[in-house]
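Pasting as-is:
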Amino acid sequence: MTALRLPLFPLNTVLFPGMVLPLHIFEPRYREMVNRCLDEHLPFGVTLIESGPEVGGPAQPHPVGTYGMIQNVERLADGRMNIEVVGQERFRIVSLHHDKSYLCGTLERYPLDAAGTARAVALGHALRPWVQRYLKILGESANVRLDTQSLPDEPTALAYLAAIVAQVPAPEKQALLACPSAVELLARERRLYRREVSLIRALLAHRDDDANPDFCPN
């Protein structure tokens, strides 16, 4: 498997394949990095920060991330930029390099194992109704109608969409991104969605109880 040396952008966000991520670029080191990627038509690696700050100092990235390709750029008068990045595919960090103003890494592709197996297809079918329930509950709670029918059929696409829309903390999202196989990812997501649907239903029921207390006459 070919490894490439590419810029790395450690963030407090997990990027998944297929996900659109807007970023505001203001630090000089990341302006330099983005300009290089635009000039050389390169992706950069997006990783969740394992330790260290997002702004200012050096950050230690998690070892699994996603290649991000810049799709849109808005240049501001003072040199800052607003960019839109789309997640491409996963990678693993082979080694880190600190010889530029921004972090670089030697990265190798990290595709999901067992993505086209019968087991992955079956787990995708089992996950799909839980994602639909989750979206339906979120939409109802926000008075927004969400499309719950146009979910992808292909197991990997469904798994990554489920990871993107799940409203869970970044470390839990990173654990999903780092799953070695589609079977493990889909099974983990089904457990996650069953938990989240139960929690949201309980919270909404409690909210409704608070909004409509029993009337007790004096």
